[in-house]
Design brief:
This protein is an alpha/beta fold. It has a single domain, classed as Vaccinia Virus protein VP39 (Rossmann fold), CATH 3.40.50. The protein has eight helices and five strands; from the N terminus they run ααααβαβαββαβα. The protein has a five-stranded parallel β-sheet. Strand 4, helix 7 and strand 5 form a beta-alpha-beta unit. The radius of gyration is 16 Å and the shape is globular. It starts with a helix and ends with a helix.
Length: 175
């Protein structure tokens, strides 16, 4: 008899295979942006730039902090973080071909293959762990959340930038 965690792992494995395949490749092709393009995309979708969103979420984070992006794809977000002055940047991505592309695109960051459900680093390896746009694609969300909760610094467990910023904007009445 299977328990819920076995079912979650089976679902996660199916999702991982989809993301490691043609679907993941096509997703990456559609989402390759330079900083200006990413900002324009965010203005169109959310009414503010990605740069402004990052600045509002990361203003109090020391630039020397070690940061892990889970599901970094081609490194769009890592590029913006570098532009903000962060230097100690790491990303994991589930698709091995996309990892290679990201490594070429952001050679100053450490990008390796990994999954939100199996982060290839020990607990407390980073000052800040985040994801952006990834969790909506993972049915095994609760498993990810429990894994992320072991990374704690700056009074936060983990967060998704867009969700936090959009929640803050809607609570304040901003458009």
């Amino acid at each position: 008899m299977s328990d819920h965690s076995d079912a979650g792992r089976a679902t996660a494995t199916k999702e991982a295979e989809v993301w490691r395949g043609q679907f993941g490749t096509k997703y990456s092709e559609r989402n390759l942006f330079n900083a200006a393009e990413l900002d324009r995309t965010y203005v169109g979708k959310y009414g503010l730039t990605r740069t402004a969103l990052n600045q509002s979420c990361l203003a109090d984070i020391p630039r020397s902090s070690s940061i892990l992006e889970v599901g970094c794809n081609l490194g769009n977000q890592l590029i913006l973080l570098k532009q903000m002055g962060f230097e100690n940047l790491t990303g994991i991505e589930i698709h091995s071909d996309i990892v290679k592309e990201a490594q070429s695109r952001v050679p100053w960051a450490h990008v390796s293959e990994g999954s939100a459900l199996n982060i290839p680093f020990g607990d407390a390896s980073f000052d800040l762990v985040f994801t952006s746009g990834l969790l909506i694609h993972i049915l095994g969300l609760m498993v990810s959340m429990t894994r992320f909760s072991s990374f704690r610094q700056f009074g936060r467990d983990w967060f998704t930038f867009a969700a936090a910023a959009m929640r803050n904007r809607s609570q304040s009445g901003e458009r």
